[in-house]
Design goal:
The structure holds two protein chains of two kinds. Chain A is an all-alpha fold. In chain A, 83% of the residues lie in helices and 0% in strands. Chain A has a single domain, classed as MetI-like (MetI-like fold, Orthogonal Bundle). Chain A is globular, with a radius of gyration of 22 Å. Classes of the chains: A mainly alpha, B alpha/beta.
Chain lengths: 261, 321
């Protein structure tokens, strides 16, 4: 990337952020909306500054559980997708149950996660895993099944075995799809971890973002609620950026999505 | 019983802001004034007096047409009333003082529970003698950020226990003999006993935390502009609670119809257990629901000392019509 292209990547989102933030600030000022109903962006930022220590500790704790959940999703989701891609019969037998993960209302089963895994990081990680695994399965599987037919024919002509075809053709060509799944999963893992924290966080020495949100609601500090939500968004954004970095590093030499600029 | 999910709170906030109001108050056909009361939970004995008021027609005789609206987890009653989406709701004295310190104009006009109905429930097999001992071992489930969680944390510390969220679910308690949790002293111990446990309850009044609860709130503007409506509503509610204390059966049957997850036997047991908490704390006080300034002042001092609020004018926070 050249210097110019880096600027062109950073400036547009900053401008839109400033415009939307200023617009919201003015609209809330003009309507004299009380902070306890909807805090102005400036009030949220000052709540963020006032609670910086507490909220950054909470964010680190949530980040740990969410990233563990995301890693489990990547490993298991990827593996499940490979198994499902083996044969149409396997797919027909098991794919419907993979969809189950997508439809699980995690709020409803979160209390059961506590019974199964105990309070603390294991239950929270499980909640992050459950909501983030399906996009990885679905995207990776679609990648594994949409390998270029011409290349498949080429491998057949050279009498490559199933394993060789999988390792040298199907898996590499599914990587962009897998990473798309991982991008979707990264935000979901943060949401899953926070929902997990609502029921399973051990907070005697602080707690995660979920607990920070609960506390701010009980204290009726709407500005702090939004500040905590903002930290959750930043965490999701951070994960997204990491996946993009992995995507760039793994595909910069060969895939059109990372080489065209 | 009163867990409020954040998602519900935010959703309701958005609905409030986008103007999806709970509905306009058109005058009733027979000239009665329509008035709506927003509950903060599903129909349970803690709201028995409101349903009893409807059954005996107390609202009709006071010229009102009372609409009791059930709530649930996430009903942000304080915000709904403060924003003017509804004129009356059910809250508690501590939430009123906190909301006022954040700039919301809320005033309490009637207090169902003269004695704070919450406590900490543990297993009697542990042989604990006091609240202090509850904080010496095991797990304790409380809603983080509530004033009493702050108070207990300050008083006893959480360094020897594992503190976890309270999720309105008895399973963890039944599952773990070293588990303690916040409870409505009138409700969860009864449910735990029916599930085979032997609970022991330490009321929060043991540590001097005794705010009015089951408090009807409105805005000071409503009191100033329509004092007659406020008086009629309080009279209606008071008659309802008198009727419910005399015989809760009919109101219980109606609430059981609206909330079938609680069986009639539990309704009856809870109604009996809550009676002493509803009776006037001071025997010289004859009327149900009346509030005293000293109690509000004591609460304001506690919340200020805990650092939850930084200012309070307790005399403006309540009004006995």
């Amino acid at each position: 990337m050249t210097h110019g292209s880096r600027l062109s990547a950073i400036v547009p989102p900053l401008v839109s952020l400033l415009v939307i933030g200023a617009g919201l600030e003015l609209a809330l000022l003009a309507t004299a909306t009380p902070t306890y109903l909807m805090p102005r962006p400036s009030v949220v930022l000052s709540a963020l500054a006032d609670n910086a220590g507490e909220l950054s500790r909470a964010t680190l704790q949530t980040a740990l559980a969410a990233s563990l959940g995301l890693v489990f999703s990547a490993v298991f989701g990827g593996t499940i997708a490979v198994v499902l891609s083996m044969h149409p019969w396997v797919r027909r037998a098991f794919y419907p149950y993979a969809v189950f993960f997508q439809t699980v209302p995690v709020v409803a089963i979160a209390p059961m996660l506590v019974i199964w895994f105990g309070y603390g990081i294991r239950a929270i990680t499980a909640a992050a895993f459950i909501v983030s695994v399906f996009p990885i399965i679905a995207n990776t599987l679609s990648g594994l099944l949409s390998t270029d037919p011409a290349l498949c024919d080429l491998f057949r002509i050279y009498r490559a075995g199933r394993l060789a075809t999988l390792l040298k053709l199907r898996l590499p060509s599914s990587i962009p799809h897998f990473l798309t799944g991982l991008r979707i999963a990264s935000g979901l893992a943060v949401i899953g971890a926070i929902v997990g924290e609502f029921v399973a966080d051990t907070y005697q020495a602080g707690g995660g973002i979920g607990t920070a949100i609960e506390v701010a609601i009980k204290e009726q500090k709407t500005d702090k609620v939004f500040a905590a939500v903002l930290m959750a968004s930043l965490l999701g954004l951070g994960f997204f950026a990491l996946v993009n970095l992995a995507s760039f590093l793994s595909m910069r030499h060969w895939h059109v999505s990372e080489t065209k600029e | 019983m009163h867990m409020r999910y954040s998602a519900g709170f935010l959703l309701a906030l958005v609905l409030n802001l986008t103007g999806c109001s709970a509905g306009g108050d058109a005058p009733a056909a027979d000239g009665r004034t329509p008035v709506a009361l927003q509950l903060n939970w599903v129909p349970e004995p803690e709201f028995g007096g409101y349903y009893a008021a409807l059954q005996i027609g107390a609202d009709r005789e006071a010229g009102l047409s009372l609409d009791v609206r059930g709530g649930g987890p996430g009903t942000p009653v304080e915000q709904m009333v403060a924003a003017g989406r509804i004129d009356f709701g059910v809250s508690s004295a501590d939430n009123v003082l906190i909301a006022r310190s954040r700039g919301a104009d809320l005033v309490a006009i009637y207090a169902v529970y003269q004695t704070f109905p919450q406590g900490i429930m543990t297993h009697s097999g542990r042989g604990l003698k006091s609240l202090a001992q509850v904080f010496e071992s095991g797990t304790i489930a409380m809603e983080p950020g509530t004033p009493y969680e702050r108070l207990l944390r300050q008083r006893f510390g959480l360094d020897k226990v594992r503190a976890v969220p309270y999720t309105n679910n008895l399973a963890p308690f039944l599952h773990d003999p070293l588990f303690a949790q916040q409870c409505f002293i009138t409700a969860e111990p009864i449910a735990a006993r029916r599930a085979g446990a032997d609970p022991q309850v330490f009321p929060l009044t043991d540590v001097g935390y005794n705010p009015y609860a089951g408090v009807i709130i409105t805005r000071s503007k409503v009191i100033a502009e329509n004092p007659e409506l406020v008086r009629s509503l309080v009279a209606t509610v008071r008659r309802g609670w008198q009727a419910y204390l005399q015989d809760p059966r009919a109101a219980n049957a109606e609430m059981h119809r609206l909330n079938p997850t609680m069986d009639l036997e539990t309704f009856a047991a809870v109604a009996a257990a809550q009676e002493p908490l509803i009776a006037p704390a001071d025997p010289s006080e004859s009327e149900l629901g009346t509030m005293r300034l000293e109690r509000w002042e004591a609460l304001a001092a506690q919340l200020t000392e805990l650092g939850i609020i930084d200012r309070a004018e307790p005399s403006n926070a309540f009004h006995n019509p």
